[in-house]
Amino acid sequence: MSLALTRGDLIRRHNFIDGLWAGAFDGACFAVSNPATSETIAEVADSGTVDARAATDAAARAFPGWRDMLARERAEILRRWHALIVANTEDLARLMSMEQGKPLTESRGEVAYGASYVAWFADEAIRIYGDLIPQQQRGKRMSAVKEPVGVVAAITPWNFPLAMIVRKIAPALAAGCTVVAKPAEDTPLTALALAALAQEAGLPDGVLNMVSASRAQGVIAVADWLADPRVRKITFTGSTPVGKHLAREAAGTLKRLSLELGGNAPFIVFDDADLDAAVTGLMAAKFRNGGQTCVCPNRIYVQGSVYTDFANRLAKRVAALTVGPATDPGAQIGPMINARAVDKIARHVDEAVQRGATVLVGGRRLTELGANFYAPTVLTDANDDMLFCSEETFGPIAPLFRFDDEAQALRLANATPYGLAAYFYTQDVRRINRVAGQLEAGVVGINEGAVSSEAAPFGGVKESGYGREGSKYGLDDYLAVKYMCQGGLN
Q1: Global confidence as pTM
Q2: Cβ–Cβ contacts within 10 Å for residue 8, how many?
C-alpha cells in the first residue's frame, strides 16, 4: 500500500502568513521524517522571531475586519472549510500517517473527529448570546455582551496533528478572533495542509497564520508571542512543565490561557464489573494511537477477587494486536513518534520488572520492524514505587495494580498531581454516583473507554491544566464579557 497523495499540493513546506506561502525569513529549514522508517518526508521552514512577529502583524491587521463580520458569514466559511477537510479525508489521513506513524484507519478516524469540531463551532458561531440585566435603577439599562478577545496563539502537540489544532482554531475563528499557530515540530505537515484548505475555503488573508519550527526555533517563536501584548490568549496542549513556563511568561501581559497538559489517568475495575466490557473499554482507551494520548490509562487498578481473570482476558486481547507501519493495512499499533519515546517506554518497563512486575505480554522493542517500534505490553504486580505512578508513559503499556476496596481505589486513583481523565467500571448504580463524584479529574468515563466528543467539554483539573475545549463551553475562553450601562432613559 502506498501513502502517496492524490493532491500533492497539500504538502506545504512554507509558512502561511497573511495569505501568502513563504519560507522562513533567514531561509532555514528542518526535516520532517516518517517515524516508521526514519526517512525524510519534507524539509519545512524553520521559523524564528521575525516570522512569528510577521504572523502577529498579519493577525492584528486582520482582526477588526474578522471581528466585525456577521457571525453567519464566519460560520459559512467554517462550513466550507469543514466540507474541504471531509472531501480530502484520504490525503489528510495519509499525510498524517506518514509524519506521525499511526495506522491509516486511525488517521481516517482522526480526520472525521477533527472535522466534527469545525462543524460544531460553525454552528456555535451564530449562538453567542449576551444578556439584558434586569433593571436595578430607574432610567438605566444594563446589558452584557460577549466579544472576541483578539489575537490567539495556538500551540499544539504531535500526537493528534489534525484534531488538536482544529479544535483550537475553529472556536477561535467562530468567536471572531484571529489566529497565529505553531504545530509540533514532529508533525507540521498535516497542520499546514489544513491551512491550505482554510485558504481554499475563502478565509480572509491574515485571519489564520501558521509557522513551522524546529524544537529550538519554536521556543524562540513562541517567546515572541508571549511577550507581544497584541496576542491576548495562548491555547496550548502539551506537557505540564511547558504549560507552567507559558503561564509564568504570559503573566507579563496578563494573557488569557487555556492549558491542556499532562495526565496520569487511572482505570478502575471493580469486582462487580462486566469484565469483557471493561477489557474492551481499556483496549479503546489505552491502545489508541499506540498509547500516545494524554487521556490514556496509565495506572490500571483491578479489585483483588477479579484481578487474575481480568489480567488473563486483557493479555489475550493485547497479544492479538498487530504492530506495523501505516503501509501495513492490518496494523493496529504503529511506531512511537521517535527514539526518545521508545527509550522512555523501555525505561519504565525495565524499572517495573526490576521492582517485581511480571510481563504477561510484550515487554520488548520490536527492532525487526524498525527503531521506533515497541510491543504492546501487559504487566502484573505493579506497585506505587514504579515510575508509572509518577510519570506519564505515553506508550502501549498496561500496568495492573491490585486494590482491596472502593476507598483504597479512590485514594490510589487521586494520588497524583494530575487530573485530566479517569475511568471506572462497575454495575452498582450507587457506586457510580459515589466514585464519579470523588474522582479528581476533568473527564470521567463510566463503563466507557472512548469519551471524547465535539459536543463535550474536554479539559483537566490540578496540574493537568485549565480551560475547556469542545462543546458550548469551548467558546468561553475566546470571548470577553463587556458590561454596558446606559443612563438618562427617564
Answers
A1: 0.96
A2: 8
